[in-house]
Amino acid sequence: MKRFTIVQNGYNVEEVNRFIDIVIKRLEKLNNDNSLLQVKISSLEEQLKEKKVEEVKLSEAILAAQQTSDRIKTLAREEANMIVEQAKNNANSIVHEALLNAEKTEHEAMLLKKNITVYKNRVKNIIKSQLEIAEDLDKYDLDN
Fold first, then answer.
1. Max Cα separation, the chain?
2. Beta strand spans in the chain (E)
3. Which long-range contacts (CB under 8 A, 24 or more apart) does 15-20 make?
């Protein structure tokens, strides 16, 4: 606390006036500083609001990206399962067709063997009958 010099009829007027000037200057400076700080606070509050809006938008974007990623994974998994199922069906169809072809080829081979045996027997019989005819011809003496 400021102490003033006591003079006749009260305090020294010049000291009091100087002190009042100092107090006024300090109050003006404090008011200016306060105004600047209020402006700065308002600016920071506005920036904070903007950052919160950005944060909400980023959170929404991240959530949307995660949901999209999950949907893509699910669709890819379903498509992969479908492709595997189709491949299994195709493989089963190919195996079934191959078995049918093998059975058909085996049956055709068996028929060919049977036909060869039949033709072989026919040729043997024809040769045998030709030999018999040739032997019968020997019985006839053609020279006499």
1. 201
2. 6-7, 10-11
3. none
Tokens of 50: 């903007």
Task: Label residue 104 left, alpha or beta by phi (over 0 means left) and psi (-120 to 50 means alpha).
Answer: alpha
The per-residue pLDDT for range 11-56, each reduced to its tens digit, is: 788 888 899 999 999 999 999 999 999 999 999 999 999 999 999 9
Cα–Cα distance for residue pair 85/59, rounded to 1 Å: 39
19 contacts: CB under 8 Å, gap ≥ 6? 2, 4
Q: What tokens were used for 56?
A: 């909400």
pTM comes to 0.48
Question: Is the separation of the CB atoms in 26 and 37 below 8 Å?
Answer: no
Count of CB atoms situated within 10 Å of the CB of 47: 10
Give the number of residues written for the chain: 144
Domain boundaries, the chain: 6-112
